[in-house]
Amino acid sequence: MKTTEYAFDGLLVLEYQSGNRKSLSLLVKRHHVRLCKHSYRFTYDVEVSKDIVQDSWKTIISKLYTLKDPNSFSSWATRIVTRKSLDYLGKLKRNRMHIESIHKDATTTDSSDDRESEIKKLHLAIKELPENQQMVLRLFYLEEYSLKEIESILEISVGTAKSRLFHAREKLKELLKTKKR
Asked: How many whole angstroms separate alpha carbon 81 and alpha carbon 64?
């Protein structure tokens, strides 16, 4: 996002904190689709992503009065969606239903479509990475956030983000090599 967009978000947050309810609808219009896409990159399920973002908006609205730096609204809201998406994934892992469905999908893929098969292999390999590496990969490559923005979203240092990105790429190379054999 550009500096002017951060400033505009900051203005909308200040307006909302001052009692202007219309500014909230503008914030929702500006960020809802982006937040849904962000959540989708964790869940790979459109409906679940919409539900997560809807739940996130409840949290965002209830805590918007406590936001100290209004210009950081975008990364703050993204952080909330990230955490709720990860909470959802954690529940799925505990139930093991998600893992079973991945294995079923992997065994029933049509081998005639090589590209789709490669994409599925990549998604499966990404899911085998530790969650902290998955997050950095998704934010950097899929969402195209800078390392500085990732620092803000995940509340980690740029050096830690770089390290996680490096180790995620190395692990992915290994995983994809072993899957090709």
From this structure: 14
Q: In which residue are the tokens 């609808």 written? A: 25
CATH number of 96-181: 1.10.10.10
User: Please, what CATH class does the domain formed by 1-95 belong to?
Assistant: mainly alpha
Kindly state the tokens that stand for 41.
């990159």
Secondary structure (3-state) at 102: helix
pTM of the model: 0.62
How is the chain split into domains, by residue range? 1-95, 96-181
Query: In this structure, are residues 67 and 23 in contact, taking their beta carbons and an 8 Å threshold?
Result: no
* pLDDT tens-digit readout, 29-64: 999 999 999 999 888 889 999 999 999 999 999 999
129 phi and psi, to 5 degrees? -75, 155
**Separation between Cα atoms, residue 14 and residue 109, nearest integer Å:** 50
Which tokens sit at 4? 């002017």
What is the number of alpha carbons within 13 Å of residue 52 lying toward its C-beta? 31
